[in-house]
Amino acid sequence: MVVTAWVDGRISADESVASPNAATGRELHDAFLSRIPALTLGLVRARGDALAIGSVELLRFGKPEVGRNAVEWPIEGGVLAGAPGGSWRIAATDGRLVASIEAYRPALPRPLYSLTQLVMHRLLMRLFLLEMRGRDPAPRATASATQRRRAASIDIALCATLAGVMRRPPKPVTLLGIAAAYHVACWSITGRTLGGMVTGQRVVAVDGSKLSVTQSMLRLAAIPLSWMRGTPIHDQIACTEVVID
Question: Residues in the chain with pLDDT < 50?
Fold first, then answer.
């Protein structure tokens, strides 16, 4: 679930996922600061209570307020902050994990911020919350490797047919473009490709919710790693599951 609102050039946004597990404010504090490097492939690191790339502070936080089931940092500056003010909060409440930014003024102009920083913020926060939630219990029974291969075969055949219709002989770039658009659209809208519908499968986030567009793109981009290693690493990276529908 995503909620976004703008007031006088300041943004407030929430991202939340269902979670059966309780978490304390201290656990949320420590987990966020420790997992940021992994979520950003080592690019962004926590330095004290600031997020930084090298010596550059992206966001500088004040002293966190750690409660029983939530942690909140005041935003004091950094190159991504247009002005001090606002807060960053993570909480576990009513069976959900919620990450929210309140009254934050970005340094980037609103259109550019919405297309860049906000997109990455939503993706990273969703992945963080889903990792905190964990994979157990699974939202539904998961599909076997054989079932997944059957669905993939149908999808590959469909994409190859569409590529052949558009251009004869089909070029690899055409096939890749069709396959990328097809999978991202299907996973983001319904979670089901044609292969999934035929074999009774659906791709969902580990909390059972639909994938975001950026989460779908991340899952697709990580598929070659799964092919090389022979395990579904793309589902681990994107915090997704293939379940029986």
Answer: none
Which of 142, 122, 138 has its CA nearest to residue 218?
A: 122
Strands 56-61 and 2-7: unpaired
One-letter identity of residue 84:
P
- State the alpha helices, DSSP H only, in the chain: 25-39, 110-115, 117-133, 145-166, 172-189, 194-199, 213-229, 233-238
Could you tell me the residue range of the domain that residue 170 belongs to? 145-244
Among candidate residues 110, 133, 156, the one where a domain is terminated: 133
Q: How many distinct structural domains can be found in the chain?
A: 2
pTM as predicted? 0.92
Between CA 228 and CA 133 the distance in angstroms is 28
Per-residue pLDDT at 1: 53
3-class secondary-structure state, position 36: helix
Q: Which two tokens stand for residue 49?
A: 């209570």
pLDDT at 35: 94
- The answer to whether residue 139 sits within a structural domain is no
Both tokens of 31, joined, read 């987990």
Q: Which residues pair with 92 in a beta bridge?
A: 97
Q: In degrees, to the nearest 5, what angle opens at C-alpha 63 toward C-alphas 59 and 58?
A: 5
